[in-house]
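Two entries, shown back to back:
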Amino acid sequence: MTLRPLMKIILYFYHVTLSQYMSKIILLISFFLIQTSCFTQNFQQDSSQIEKLFTGILIGTSRDSSLFELKQVKTNNKDNIGILEIYDFYFAKFLMQSVEMDSAIVISQNALKKYNQLENSGNQINFLKIIASCYAYNQDYQQGIIYFKKALIIAEETNHLEQAAYINNNIANLFFSLMDFESAYKYSSASFSYLKNHPENPYYASILAILSMAESKTQYKEKAYHHATEALEIATKTNNILALIVANHALGDIEGEQNNYKEAIKWFSKSLEISEQYHQLNLSLLNHIGLLPCYIGLGEYEGAIYHGEEALIISKKTGNKNVTYSLKRKLAMAYHKSGQDDKAFTLMHDAHEIYKATTSFETQESINEILIKYDTEKKEKEIQKNKVKLMHQEVESGRFRFIIALLVFILLLFFILYLFIQHKNKRKLIDKENELEKEILRAVIEGEEKERERLSSDLHDGIASTLTSIRFKMENSKDEQSTEIIQMIRDAQIDTRRISHNLSPLKIENEGIQGAMKQFAQENSNESTKIHFSNFCSAIQLNKDTELMIYRIVQELVQNSTKHGNAKNIDIQFMSSENEFNWSIEDDGKGFNVKGKPLGQGLLSIKNRIERMNGDFNIDSSYQGTIVQLSIPF
């Protein structure tokens, strides 16, 4: 689930009331900009006058007189650098509120250069936040993160703890936009840590509500319920609109995760009602997306389709492209369940093309690199300060230490060169071993397939035939116990047939991979795990070996979902294009961590087989389930 930054609406009721005739777009942007502010109010009389005049221009009152007075104030204070800095700040803020983002960035960057000598950390933070907010609004998340992080470093170094809380909250909202809920939790938790002992802070409920939403989407669901309930209580007392919307949504998320769909719909609908009342399109989008799977879970597919289509409309209006992939996949499922397979196929095809074209991982990775870079720089600055102190204390022994360091460096170079040669030789040996392992693996797979065919034949021609003969005899000579025994024999025949089909799927020979997979889903689905198969393919041409390979891969992944993921529902989907066959296996199990850990033997074997066929293998897993997408060329 992805959103434009939630930064657009915080401090809704704490800003100057705008005229009724002001356009909705300017109203929305104003709320967004105010959230990024939280600016110092202890300015002198001239600064208060500057703020009042720019506000007058923004809301359309006394424009000409305000411009004239602003010109006079600037002229009268042309030698007062402090007033000029305040003037530039409110001018940049005015441009930002007027949606002139590029101009606001230029004014703020120039101000940082001009007034750097004043070393006013509060004003530096404010200009940096304006720049970051403008970039974030333009969806240039990398630049937004860079400037938010610069502002955060200054706030922490100068002990501006409230500012640090607001900036961390901004960064958390940005990660919500990228569907990176772990990072969103990290920064929303850091934000709340500054304010947890200050419930009197006007932004306490909003930040707590955002933290609860991050917790609801990660593993901290018990905390999420407690925090969302507390935020809702405070927001109700203080009439904090943002906190009301987000807290209700978080409670809907929590209930939805537990499959309490009716309760979830109640909370999501309340959140949607408030967000629509105050024209908060991005939060309306969030709630429509939350309602979609709830209605699917209840089997009310018309309701699911309505909220899915509404979400698509809002995503186009707001330019939010990040939600399109997951939204179209869920909406396709609703259309498929309602019997509208043509529409479902179109949406699934669009979603697959979006998945192939781009994912948010690259953006997330680059942003994470930026964050790591600035965290590293912060630590390096502290280390550098300590080094300077040590250097002053050890001036007399400096030359000797330099010689020692030089000798150590030379020895280190030789040691690194030795390690490099050793590593290179070891790499060659490993490559040869890997090639040998691949050959052995191919031979083992071929041997296993032959053995499967033999066992399947033995089951079908031996045990199955024997059971059939016994059943016929029992049916022809019924007695008091024969009915129960005949039923037991029939159950044994069904199990034998299922095992035989799994060992050697004969339907591949007769009806192709689609028929075999349909039979597989039917025969292996049970009360604890439901297996659903959806075929969005037109006629395809695959050789029998390839179809058998696809069948085995699905078997392996379904087994992983049931055995390791404890999945309750498994969806198998087939799709094809002009030159490519695609299939996916998605479950609602507990998932696993795919970052920084090697794949297991089974998944690695699948990956190697797909890559040998010049195909693609992608796996995405979280606490909400696992999806594996595979494709091979025709």
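entry 2 starts here
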Amino acid sequence: MKVYPTKSLRNIALMSHQGAGKTSLVEAMLFNTGAINRLGDVQEGSTVADFDEEEIRRGLSLSTALVAVETHDLKLNILDTPGYVDFQGEVKNALRISDLALLVIDVSSGVEVGSELYWSYADEFNLPRAVVINKMDRENIQPDAVLQQLGEIFDARFVRLQLPIMEAGNFAGVVDLLSMKAFIGAESKPQDIPAALADQAEEARFELVEAAAESDDTLLEKYFDTGELTDEEVLQGVIAGVKTQSFVPVMYSAGKANVGVSALVDLLARISPAPDERPVAIKGEQNGEEIELPAADGGPLVVYVFKTTADPFVGRLTYFRVVSGTLKADSRYFNHNKGEEERVGSLLVLRGKEQITLDTMHAGDVGAVAKLNHTVTGDTLGDKGKAVTLPELEFPQPIYGVAVTPATQADSAKMGPTLTRLCDEDPTLVWRQDPATREAVLEGMGDVHVDVAIKRAAQLGANLETAIPKVPYKETVTKTFATQYRHKKQSGGAGQFAEVHLRVEPLETGAGFEFANEVFGGAISGSYIPSIEKGIKGVMQTGVIAGYPVVDVKAVVFDGKEHPVDSKDIAFQIAGREVFKLAFKGASPVLLEPIVNIHITVPDSNMGDVIGDLSSRRGQVQGTDSLVGKAIVHATVPLAEVQRYSNDLRSFTQGRGVYTMELSHFQPVPSHIAEEIIAKSQKEEEE
């Protein structure tokens, strides 16, 4: 493969809800441009883009695949992103480094919630967009209804660049409204428009010309004067319209059947912005100030890493975009995020797992490099003296977690480093040690996301077992209570003696812990007061009634006794610990449970199911919003009731529901539920 200059590059991210046919579409693109000699199939696990073992096993894309398509003396860097919303972090990272977002819509399903989510991500980057209505070879389709739905749901103007050709109810090809020619089947050769479509094509062409003219002041003036534009001028107007987002072009295809795909590639090559034509430059930070980074070879070298993968055989593979400057193979560059130098070996152009080496990549190009030591997703490479970084992206909070433990003693040492490595590669994956439950918890965007991470950990040598995490309850008190405790121990040697009088008081939510000393007259020496506090803090970590951390409590030492010989630090630690337990139990203790805010987007027909289900989970609906065909339910619900909500929501919405949630506050657990939790905790402690 030759080295392509900036002007000859096109970076296009394919985004869609799960099952719209992106991977099959990419497969047909490669076949029609001669990169492969047979069409692979997703179900057979033979496509270029879905090459990972887990992707083949599940029959769906789990990560963004980078696929280079050469056509018209251009290189189209196609990013085939996952449609499954568990992997939305992959989509967001891919969109950041793309210059056009191509929304793929299943004509039978229309606009689904995943498509709306990814459209909102494209909004964040102010990214030009186009739409392809795919799977046109299905039966009983209504493409016009999908076009209308697009206009109702998204705040954009949708204009057709093509018309579908239907013969006996079957999708046969497309009419290109730019050239006013027909393209039948997989052929890229133009033909005359079928007579039955002539009038419809003229009407659609008129709408396209109007939209093109309105995108460019010069063209608009000519159109007003003459009432017509040449084909070249219409194309000029379409290119301007895509860049300025004055309208969104719409095309048609059947990827698996390979109908309309050649015409689609031809249009993408013509209307997609080159990196140096990107309407909004990628922004970086230099010396604390925001700067624009135009795609130019002469600019400062800025290489942004948007994805990293761990391979047990190849090692780490780092995916990047040359935002600015020129990248050379076999050179040393500086990681400005880590403050470490990296040696960049061969530059790789990817077609799925196929790796093609280059010695140079120009501004705007997208590729990969193997075996970097320090660089992870989100880092920026460049020249040591010119520190430019890109701001961190914001990702949704994880919504699904598992408690992880090493399967064997040998896996114990590997668990932490392996999980850290996986989380460095995927910013929507988080692992932590929960201080409340003393568990290691791995969190992600859904059960499939986390399950894939566990399998990848095994590939990297750390076999992990999983369980539902314990809910991080907290313990507190609701009234003031005072008591005393005497610790006395006499043995053959020195004895131990300490007596502590303690009062506990409730504090307001979020106040934490306060300790006060009200001892007067030297009943307890000042040197022993810290010992009492230390004993109390030890209890607070492990809990009193159910083994969960104690919060929002004030402990006041107001009296006590000591012995001139037997009193010592350890005696007052023990007395402090035990008197706090007694006082805590007498102060009407309660368990606090985490409450989350949850926002659920589902088809209108499922709103009643969602609200009824939330009620059964002790949830409280705070309000609802309506979009075209969609309902958004806002509610608060105990975390304990929604730890596996993604599975249940997917079940009763047939995979068409999505949700986000974040911690809101803690509140007392209902007494009958608290009794069960306490009894279970005591039983586990006895065992």
